Amino acid sequence: MTNEPLDVEQRAEAMLMKLASDPHLGRFVDSSFSIPKVYRGSGKVRLVILGQDPTVKDVRSRAAIKTVLNLDRRGGLRNYLIQICSHLGLDLDRNVYATNYLKNFFKPPTQIKELDVFREFSRVWLPLLRDELATVPEVPLISLGQPLLSALVSEGASPHVRDYWGYTPGWKSGQTASFRCLEPYENQLGRLIFPFPHQPSIRKLFYKDRLTDYTAFVRSVLR
After folding, report:
1. What is the pTM of this model?
2. How many other CB atoms are found less than 10 A from the CB of residue 118?
3. How confident is the model at residue 1 (pLDDT cuts 50, 70, 90)?
4. Which residues face 50 on adjacent strands?
5. From the CB of residue 137, how many other CB atoms can be counted at a distance below 10 Å?
6. How confident is the model at residue 64 (pLDDT cuts 50, 70, 90)?
7. What is the phi-psi region of residue 138: left when phi exceeds 0, alpha when psi lies from -120 to 50, beta otherwise?
8. Which residue stretches of the chain are H helix?
């Protein structure tokens, strides 16, 4: 198992070189920086955390991103994930494997209007991600953010994080639906997936009020 993350990273770097020279996709790829390393805890992996891609808007800040989701250093995102893991009875530093769906930096994806970034780049990265997840078989997964969830769902499944957190139009008056997860047959990875908002969105009242209850739901399912 020791060599598996390295193999993923080697394959990803080789793919980055191909993407950078691709006449159609290359102009959207920022190949100035290496692909961040995957994050793997020191103990048994019991949870996979999946991010969207490593890009941040400030180009100068990208050089500091060495590990997926910046889990090698302190910060708001790491604290958010530590909080989630704590609610689940897990240790981020021991029980988590973290990686990105799209491995390369972009220029940046939110400003690309000429193509559907997920559709075009999924053809490159999704097969590698499936091989990567095969190294941690049957481990459930947390997805971060709405755009990522939209790329993961199969036809007929909701692409909205809020729908898995019991959203109803009358939520402000206490009307909520049941919590749920994305079943393996409902997504492109064939895994049990629990959709979570990305860190900035957890500040929204709807998610903030439900974080403890939703993580309790996740913990009950994981048992």
Report:
1. 0.92
2. 19
3. very low
4. 99, 143
5. 8
6. confident
7. left
8. 4-20, 59-62, 76-87, 92-95, 117-133, 146-152, 161-164, 205-222
